[in-house]
Amino acid sequence: MTTTRPATRVAAAERPVARVLPLLGVPHLDREFDYRVPESMSAEALPGVRVRVRFAGRLVDGFLVERTAHTDHQGELAWLERVVSPEPVLTSSLLRLVDLVARRWVGTRSDVLRLAIPPRHAAAEKSVPEPGAPAGVSIGPVELPTGWEDHPMVARFLEAVTGGVPARGVWTVPPGRDWARSLAALADSVRRRGLQVLLIVPDQRDVDRLAAACREVVGGGADGRDLVADLSAGVGPSARYRRWLRAVRGHARIVVGTRSSVFAPLPEPGLIVLHDDGDDSFVEPRAPYPHTRDVAAQRSALEGTPLLLTSVDRTPEVAEYVRTGWAHEIRPRAGLIRELAPRVVAVTDADPVQARDVAGGRTRLPAVALTMARESIDVDAPVLVQVPRKGFIPTLLCGSCRTPARCRRCNGPLRAGRMDEVYGPVELACGWCGAPEPGFRCVACGSRALRAGVVGAGRTAEELGRMFPGVRIRTSGGGEILDSVPASPAIIVSTPGAEPVAEGGYGAALLLDSWALLGRPDLRAVQNALRLWIGAAGLVRPADEGGRVFLSADSESAVAQALVRWDPQGWAERELADRAEVGFPPAVHMMAVDGPAAALAEFLEDFRFADSVEVLGPVDLPPGEELPGHDEVEDPERVLLRVPPAMLNDVAAELRALIVRRAGRRSTHPLRVRLDPVNIG
């Protein structure tokens, strides 16, 4: 840390002007300001370092963007107060990416920088060795990584990656394939040729799994394991910054992280891999709310870094990349999917034979599902049961007309304190006001009968325990998530995304209550349901080894057929075409502008593209959405803008200009802008 006393300040002999971006978080001040560099700081005050400057009478943090010899400022320049660290963390390539993200997602660069660069820890800087000489790219034929022999196209992709070609690929994980081991082998192949690899996954569980696979593949004891760095907030700020420095100084050659790692400025980037782009964890909850997949795509285009998008399913956004030729699919050899996929049976409760209750009213499992489970247990294989919700019975419906059971006092949802085997839910109480409900009667039809709306994991485990006495029942989800289970008779009841891996694969999987996923009021509800189903079904043994999957959905529906035929690519292509027909992302962009009703009225008056883009609303803010300072916001509303892709940059610039003008007028409640929000409303 370098400081000077005002009396001893002498301007630097060379390039005495520092162009600094203060981290103010205010839209109308999102620009560089010039400061004079003291000679005593000249050696450390280099582009990319953290500095402190005085702004409006107070000290603020910032980044030194550029050193120049002259300034356009009329008047006396303030002095650079301090070089916080000589570490150049804001590289030129990262600054270009930050500029692009701020413009595209209508945010400020200071907000993006807080996402991109972790907070500094001085001890971590001292503990990490200085950058060494570049490793250099090795020359020679590219060999297929271990486990990729059934994907001959990957050799051409790796040749392009190591040859400096900005290749972009899409890989759909085959059923039964350990995606973590496959990606680890691919990353190690690129690492051995002198390049760094960035692997981005949704959450900490995936980080742990993938980092362990990478360390196993790299080998070589402690030195080899140090070649892998895992970046996530869960390790703590000091450890996170130390690992981040190991990556940006070039010591870590394989970097595994969550969404913010997409910004990591690697000195020798060879490949960026993003796995499971349909996971909502990739949507940044902080302004300007970018999606990691889109940031990775923009970074690939901006820097020319090769990109690989992998998943067990296919999102319409990735299908659009393939359709336009921006990315190319890495296909397996012919017939591989048919060899590895389990047999899938889709049955709806509209089928009176297959879906009849064989347990005398004590379970909702149809005969075909119970048969699958019994056959799996008979061959000493575990059974996976996926339920959409955790807990016991999250919601209750009228047993006759399926109207949600509501409290007669406050209209809140009724909850069951416990369940009786014969009489169903007892000890009813309101989930909002807590008032007991001793005599429920449906307001729609007058019936006193109740049924579970979505039976949770706890209730399902209880049902299965009665159906399979002597078989171990385990749950995974909520506070306790299992990583793996042995190849022995057991029933694993899991919530979506928390399914453990079974040694040798599951003998059967039962995917229950599909309507709870498909019925969500969300544009991406069906897409998310298929992703969760295929992720669970992919853990089951191949059909030739007896693997079976039961799906409680209409077998004639397109999404059920996508699972039955194991064709997520075909479903994504059809979904993309359907969305293009009705004007939904990714065919067009949807920009959600949220704010108080009065502020949105002013916005619509000033918005100059109102005749060029489709304006929808204003409408009430969707349930579950809250504005910053929501307690003080009256009448929160949303306006949706349907923007053609060719106009996105112009519309984003216009929105930014409007927000800057509002900030300059010190408007009480600023507008919030989200590009392609997950919850459109």
Radius of gyration: 28 Å
Given the helix and strand composition, which structural class is it?
A: alpha/beta
- CATH homology-level superfamily of the largest domain: P-loop containing nucleotide triphosphate hydrolases
Low-confidence parts: 350-363, 418-425
Distance between the termini: 49 Å
CATH top level of the largest domain is Alpha Beta
Strand proportion, as a percent range, falls in 15-25%
Please tell me the CATH architecture of the largest domain by its name. Answer: 3-Layer(aba) Sandwich
Strand order of the largest sheet: 9-10-8-11-12-7-13
Shape: globular
Please estimate the helix content. 25-40%
Average of per-residue pLDDT values: 87
Total beta strands: 29
Report on this model:
By secondary structure, this protein is α/β, with parallel strands linked by helices. The protein has 4 domains: 2-88, no CATH class; 153-336, Rossmann fold (3-Layer(aba) Sandwich); 342-393 and 455-565, Rossmann fold (3-Layer(aba) Sandwich), CATH 3.40.50; 589-675, Alpha-Beta Plaits (2-Layer Sandwich). Helix content is 29%, strand content 22%. It has 19 helices and 29 strands. The strands form 7 sheets. It has a 7-stranded parallel sheet, with helices on both faces. A 6-stranded antiparallel sheet has the order 1-6-4-5-2-3, with no helix packed on it. Helix 1 packs across helix 2 (109-116), helix 10 (316-324) packs across helix 17 (568-582) and helix 15 (525-537) runs parallel beside helix 16 (558-564). The two termini are 49 Å apart. Residues 350-363 and 418-425 have low confidence and may be disordered. InterPro entries: P-loop_NTPase (IPR027417), PriA (IPR005259), PriA_3primeBD (IPR041222), PriA_3primeBD_sf (IPR042115). One of its GO terms (biological process) is double-strand break repair. GO terms for molecular function: 3'-5' DNA helicase activity; ATP binding; DNA binding; zinc ion binding. It comes from Dietzia lutea. Residues 24-118 form the Primosomal protein N' 3' DNA-binding domain.
